């Protein structure tokens, strides 16, 4: 369970998060919405322990991501909208992730194939040199392979074509069960039938929280 209490975050005196309260229960499928600058990405980066809050708290299954990030994030995967410029080769990235999570590396290759990416010829390539679509497919494939209880997706279909989006939905359906999914997106229709709850941020506050 993820619990956010009175979370505030400022950058150079400008408040981006203004007392956010949010609870995400195990197995929930949540859509996080809001216009650009509403605070969505900042909120997620606080949850992931990348940003230290100005005040307030976050806990993942009772563990603070700032006090013990390794333990807090054992059960969480994150697929960013803008993949980081990792210097790893694809093979090294998959080896590293498998070493931490213990998944079968063949699962990543199979997920990539389903997303119409034959990863085998690219294993020796640096991740940061791949196209945006290829990066997104690799990170989605790794996230599903890890089998974590919670997966957070930031605009996961932005670089996918229509068929790729269909495969992504199929992977979500198959992984479903008791997993928690958090989708950050501007397009509610993309996740129709997948998300059961919509939370909207505006000016750093939760302005809407309802079932969909």
Top-tier CATH class of the largest domain: Alpha Beta
The CATH architecture of the largest domain is 3-Layer(aba) Sandwich
User: So what's the overall shape?
Assistant: globular
Count of DSSP-assigned helices: 6
- Quickly count the domains: 2
Mean pLDDT: 91
CATH topology group of the largest domain: Rossmann fold
Describe the largest sheet.
6 strands, mixed
The side-by-side strand order for the widest beta sheet comes to: 5-6-7-3-8-9
Instruction: Estimate percent helicity.
Output: 25-40%
Task: State the low-pLDDT regions, or none.
Answer: none
Order of helices and strands: EEEHEHEHHHEHEEE
- Total strands: the figure is 9
**Structure classification:** alpha/beta
The proportion of residues in beta strands is 25-35%
Structural notes for this entry:
- This protein has 212 residues and is an alpha/beta fold.
- The protein has 2 domains: 1-75 and 150-212, 3-Layer(aba) Sandwich (Rossmann fold); 84-148, no CATH class.
- The protein has 6 helices and 9 strands, in the order E-E-E-H-E-H-E-H-H-H-E-H-E-E-E.
- It has helices spanning 40-47, 69-72, 90-101, 105-114, 132-146, 162-175; strands at 2-11, 14-24, 29-33, 55-60, 76-79, 150-154, 180-184, 197-202, 205-211.
- The strands form 2 sheets. It has a 6-stranded mixed β-sheet with strand order 5-6-7-3-8-9, with helices on both faces. A 3-stranded antiparallel β-sheet has the order 2-1-4, covered by helices on one side.
- Strand 6 (150-154), helix 6 and strand 7 form a beta-alpha-beta unit.
- Helix 4 (105-114) crosses helix 5.
- The two termini are 20 Å apart.
